[in-house]
Amino acid sequence: MTARFVAETEGTKARIAATRKTTPGLRALEKSAVVHGGGLPHRFGLFDAAMIKDNHARAAGSVAAAVAAVRGSLGHVHGLEVEVDDIAQLDEALAAGATVVLLDNMDLEQVRAAVARVAGRAIVEVSGGVTLERVRELAATGRRALGRRAHDAQPLDRHRLDLEP
Description:
Helices cover 35% and strands 16% of the residues. It is α/β, with parallel strands linked by helices. It has 2 domains: 1-43, no CATH class; 49-133, Aldolase class I (TIM Barrel). It has a 6-stranded parallel sheet. Helix 6 links the parallel strand 4 and strand 5. The longest helix has 11 residues, at 108-118.
């Protein structure tokens, strides 16, 4: 499945990355499958990078407040990813120093506007609605990473596909 997504984005700046969400007990295998398919593993666990999700921002009162709370406990080489739902949150995340922004469930026009707004100041990821049918048009917006859950891939029957043993 990853190889199919990678093939669809060939010639663009986009990279296919699997999210941390995996099948219980199969994380290492699913992450390995993503890498073998030409994708990026993103985070292996919660320890790899700090990520502020929408529920964290709500609990803190704002994106900026959540970033400030987390930033104080990060090491000097630790990245900070912030999930945003709209342009206002994107502006807040960028102003607060997010190194990665995750555009969550945005339509194509919103993604285009967000990528233009970021203008290279952070890595841009897109999650939600990244399907094989949409991945090419999303990749054409110029962003660097597209996310899809590794456990969404279905096992293949090699005989049905007439593959060599």
